[in-house]
Amino acid sequence: MSQPRNVLVTGGNRGIGQAIAEAFVAAGDTVVVTSRSGEAPDGLTAVTCDVTDTASVDAAFGAAEEIFGGPVHVLVANAGITKDGLLMRMSDDDFDSVIDTNLAGAFRCVRRASTGMIKARNGRIILISSVVGLYGGPGQSNYSASKAGLVGLARSVTRELGGRGITANVVAPGFIETDMTAALPEETQKAYKAGIPAGRFAQATEVAAAVRFLASDDAAYISGAVIPVDGGLGMGH
User: Fold this and answer.
1) Is the pLDDT confidence value at 205 over 70?
2) Domain extents for the chain?
3) How does DSSP classify residue 176?
4) Which of 31, 169, 177, 206 has the highest CB neighbour number within 10 Å of its CB?
């Protein structure tokens, strides 16, 4: 049985991030989530963080470290936004803001977390990407580029810090059973599911299980990997 760890989940106040945070809590770890409002669902502790602002990221980590009484052992960079639109109509701001949150935001958090991990010569970094980052998606050039960029980030971190007991991996979820997918017309849901070999959407808990494995001692020799949780949709793209 491994010792409880200090786990920070960005964007952990809802959806996949919340499921990930709750899975670590259930395993006995000490968990802090970040949200822009600083609010969290019942049973979770939150700190305020805007991942597009370095000072805000530093302050959030400082607040989390006070709660933990020590450094962050596991970082799950999950915070993300979408601003979908067709390529020819996408504004610079729609492109830049998605890259700044999803990719640069993850970088800011990884950079800040690495300080304590290097001192401890141990750490787990898990970046939440998407099947769209590998497979592409019409109207999602900004989102897809941001999520693909996380793969290069994780692999560069692995090459820099892999010798210090730190791993950096990517989890790429496919379609997840959420309020958003549930609200889609039945015909649309059927069309999506027809392209997924598993024939169904994932549960958020299934993504959380993959994240927890990558954060575990058992995954100490896995780094720079992309783990799809997509029912076979991406087939390793």
Assistant:
1) yes
2) 6-176+203-228
3) B
4) 31
Determine contact, residues 20/76, Cβ cutoff 8 Å. Answer: yes
Helices (H) and strands (E) in the chain, counts: 9, 7
What is the per-residue pLDDT for 1?
47
If we measure between CA atoms, which residue out of 147, 152, 59 comes closest to residue 103?
147
Name the burial class of residue 176, with classes exposed (0-12), middle (13-18) and buried (19+) by CB atoms within 10 angstroms of its CB.
buried
User: In DSSP terms, which residues pair with 185 in a beta bridge?
Assistant: none
> Which residues are tagged catalytic?
143
Residues paired with 76 in a beta bridge: 9, 126
Quote the crossing angle between the two packed helices 92-99 and 141-161, to the nearest 10°: 30
Buried b (16+ CB within 10 A) or exposed e, 36-46: eeeebeeebbb
Q: What is the CATH number of domain 6-176+203-228?
A: 3.40.50.720
Please state, in angstroms and rounded to a whole number, the distance separating the CA atoms of residues 185 and 142.
25
pTM of this structure = 0.96
In terms of DSSP bridges, do strands 6-10 and 74-77 run parallel, antiparallel, or are they unpaired? parallel
- How many residues are there in the chain? 237
Which residue's structure tokens are 């939150």? Answer: 46
Q: Is 34 helix (H, G, I), strand (E, B) or coil?
A: strand
Residue at 95: amino acid letter: F
Residue with tokens 């649309």: 188
Name which residue leads in pLDDT, 121 or 182: 121
C-alpha–C-alpha distance, residues 71 and 167, integer Å: 16
What whole-number distance in Å separates Cα of residue 230 and Cα of residue 234?
A: 7
pLDDT digits (tens, 9 = 90+) for 47-88: 999 999 999 999 999 999 999 999 999 999 999 999 999 999
